[in-house]
Specification:
single chain, mainly alpha
Length: 290
């Protein structure tokens, strides 16, 4: 398995969050609670679709963010939880590729969903009388559809690119799921093209989504400052403050993870950052944003 080309690799071994045997049960219980809270919190948000009072564009976007958070955690958490309880922490080649693809769909969708939501907030504060005209249902459906579509397009380009290299030195992934950085670190062939593709997609996605976020919040702050009453300013700021926190934490972690040169990467540090944005942020988002 360690020699030859890509077709000879049939499975990978996931090292997990920690390789210390005495911590496995404790970590299993910890992440089981986190995953349970993620499922409960985000399912609760999706069920708001049954409440006729919560059919505004804001709740429409929140429901889709909840679906994305739930999908992102579900792609990763069940396999990770199983691996805490077994001695052979293997994943097949195709299972690994599927997990990477699913992760990319949801993480890219989350990046742009978090960019769409400040626009909704901007319209609500800056043009409240035109809110239901500017952000009507067809526009909401279009924005959400484009978010999912672009996530899928990213996955079908990046995943085959990452798995186009040869793995002939080791099949042990220093991670708790199949991510492109630790996978490419295993390759014994030239990784310049897949690394460039990953960097371009990561950089482009973050640049355009962050540009939308920054422009929206710049205009939101200007609009808030124009409000004469302190009570009005406080109410307007509280509308978006929680979302600002969620966006800052999420984008900050992704920038740290994916826009470093490979030589500066510490896989153990990246692993801890990945725990945060794949498992912790999805359980915090319902608290941050609702």
């Amino acid at each position: 398995m360690a020699s030859g080309n890509l077709t000879q690799v049939t499975e990978f071994i996931l090292m997990g969050v920690s390789d210390r045997p005495e911590l496995q049960i404790t970590l299993f219980l910890l992440f089981l609670v986190i995953y349970g809270l993620t499922v409960t919190g985000n399912l609760g948000i999706t069920l708001t679709s049954a409440d006729s009072r919560l059919q505004t564009p804001m709740y429409f976007f929140l429901r889709h963010l909840a679906v994305i958070n739930l999908g992102n955690s579900t792609v990763i958490a069940p396999k990770m939880l199983v691996n805490f309880l077994v001695s052979k922490k293997t994943t097949s080649y195709y299972e690994c590729a599927t997990q990477l693809g699913g992760f990319l769909v949801f993480i890219v969708a989350e990046i742009f969903m978090l960019a769409v939501m400040p626009y909704d907030c901007y319209v609500a504060i800056c043009n409240p009388l035109l809110y239901m005209v500017v952000v009507f249902r067809r526009i909401c459906l279009l924005l959400v559809s484009l978010t999912y579509f672009y996530g899928f397009c990213t996955a079908i380009v990046v995943t085959p690119c990452v798995f186009s290299v040869s793995y002939c030195s080791s099949n042990i992934i220093n991670h708790f799921y199949c991510d492109n950085v630790p996978l490419l670190a295993l390759s014994c062939s030239d990784t310049y093209i897949p690394e460039t593709v990953v960097f371009i997609f990561s950089g482009t996605n973050l640049f355009f989504s962050m540009t939308i976020v920054l422009i929206s919040y710049f205009n939101i702050v200007l609009a808030i400052l124009r409000i004469r009453s302190s009570e009005g300013r406080q109410k307007a700021f509280s509308t978006c403050a929680s979302h600002m926190v969620a966006v800052t934490v999420f984008y900050g972690t992704l920038l740290f993870m994916y826009l470093q040169p490979r030589t500066n990467h510490s896989l153990n540090t990246d692993k801890m950052a990945s725990v945060f944005y794949t498992l912790v942020i999805p359980v915090l988002n319902p608290e941050f944003i609702v």
